[in-house]
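Hey,

The postdoc asked me to send both predictions to you directly instead of through the lab channel. I've kept everything plain text so nothing gets mangled by the mail client. Protein one:
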Amino acid sequence: MIRILIFFLVSLILANCSLNENSKIWNKKEKNKVDKNIEIILDEKKISYKELNPNISLDLSQVNVQNKIIDNRNNFGIQNYSGKLKKIKNFKFSKFNNENDTDLTPLFLKDGIVFFDNKGSIIRFDNDKKIIWKKNYYSKFEKKNNPKLSFALLNKKLIVVDNLSNIFLINSENGNLIWKKKNDYPFNSEIKTVDDRFFVIDLKNVLRCFFIEDGSECWNYETQKTLTITNTKNSLFVFENSVYFINNLGDLTAVDTSSGNLLWQLPTQSSDIINITYNFKNSKLVSEGKSIFFSNNKNEFYSVDLKNGSLNWINGVSSSLTPILIKNLIITFSDDGYLFVIDKEKGNIIKIKDVYKIYKEKNRKKIKPIGFSISQDKIYLSNSDGKLIILDLKTGNIKKVKKITGKIMSKPFLYNNHLFMIKNGAIIQYE
């Protein structure tokens, strides 16, 4: 009861101070009014949504279709997939002990897939699911700790970091080890590469730059630490001569790629509140034009100026999913199953549609969206109940609900006119 009272008082203070027009954080930017279709419940700092313009159809003519799985600004947009969602292949691997781990990403190649198993063995499959090579560079002790790996590829060199503080450089053609290094702390982010170096964030909220050739550290930039440890990966992206990243305290930071010097920083949260709640999650950062877009599970969706870190707008959407940008629109899902369409320039909410109304009320409270991808005409939303919900892109209407697995799974990945899903023990490919 005391914690709830403290949390309420802190929330009230922030609402009257941090978000007012004189706030130093917002730098005199006007805070957008929350849409009348959103009801704010202050004592729990939650937002309950009502549908808004659920029947309007989006104009998505002349939209460019992509066929990429890597983008340094995390801006994938509409991906090429026109299939019938027919299962054709299983890329099998040893099951993970933690079946609730959904933040896993394979490395997709033109001629196959790179992934890992529960002992940290790195596996390269060809397109016919045949194993080209399988290598393990862990000790017996490390294997028992179930390494979680992240990948990046540059010039046939496979960069690997893990949650056990290891860094590897591997020949992607044969799996042979080129070098192996040890960091002070485990890594907890995706990897981005530029020229002769790569960037990654560790669990102490330190952005680190390494040279690809030998694994030596170019520089590091340390941000505020927190007692909170999360399984959700921190996000970063690279554009021109800057690397932008957000830590698990919600601090958005920009530094120079060559020197690591600070360009600007925007704190978005109170560290006291985060350490009380223990469940703070940011979405992945996505950038287009002169802006950065991201959201969190505390009812905040941001647009931030790329050059100086000033706030363009903020609205009350609670989501830890990566938003997708299409023309002048942003598409995302709230953590309780509402589809949102947002105007990219001003942050106005154009449409809210309740996707989870297909569930009974007692069941929907147990279900969370995992992630989504968008094709030419459909949205594919994966959920914690093992189901994939397929929606019409223009209308948001549900076209189909497909059971993928009885347990939790990954977000859907669209690449090379195929859809891929990760369940425990296999990557499933659909045509």
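Protein two:
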Amino acid sequence: MAVLPKVNQLGFFEIRLESIGGLGANLAGKMLAEAGIIGAGMDGVSFSSYGSEKKGSPVKAHIRFCEMGTPIRSATPIEYPHVIGIFHEALLKSGGASGVLPGGIVLVNSARAASQIAQEADLSGCTVAVLDATRIALEEKNKVNMAMLGGLFRLCHFLDPEFMKDVIAKSLGKKYPQAVEQAVRVFERGYTEIETLEIPTADKVPAAVIPAPVLGYLNQPLGGMVVTPGSSLLKDLSVSRSGMLPAFDRATCIDCAQCDTACPDLCFVWEEQPDKRGRMQMMLKGIDYQYCKGCLKCVEACPTESLSRMLEEEGYAAAHQVKHRFDLIEV
């Protein structure tokens, strides 16, 4: 039986996976638990929380490991994990790394340096690991979750990576036998291509302390008003992108609007301008990436290849974004 590196007051080593629908965190949590309970001879429990099962919706997976004989009476969401796996780095903005215990580990799917991630998430007293799982998955034509599992196994030394390969073969073999070899290769790359950085403790509030809610019974808006509606100009679908976005070439665009017809989120910005003959026409200015979830339906619809799929780079969306007029209204 494997020995856990540390446990909390209830005797658990806890892992939380932060993700969005479509990246496979739910399945990754189940496979991770199986590798620990059956492969490493530990006891434990695993469950996930999510809303509607669609691409882009928030997903959390919770895994608890303990020594055999430890009472398992807790089925609450994990708030103070020893390890956090963040499948999409945009989730850092919404507190994806909150609650990590001092000396814990935060693994982020990102192409950026660990020092940048630590600074952005305001982390201290823990280990930050980065893995470009999206790039690996695209190169191998497989899923992000397999690469992230490889990184998690590298960080959790009590788990056996060889047993995990058997779990992958068993989980995918019946339904997707052609994907087993690719999934194992992605898992191995995730295991070897991870980079880690220990962040020293700073003179500030520890990372594990979650601040009190801003609203309470004394200052909550009357009637429980929704103060940040998701269907207004405050909506931001960028967290739903899983690594790809459309790139726009104005020079080859013929303003046919087929992209706008295919787009489910009204991402394209138009403006009335004179054409070469001086006639006023509606012309495509660009894409408002705030509302783009990366479905790439516009790329498929474009007849002139003015829209192409590209691997999202840090800062590209902000630099090339063309905002809708209602975004410019002061509220």
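Summary for protein two, as requested: The two ends are 60 Å apart (CA to CA).

Thanks,
C.
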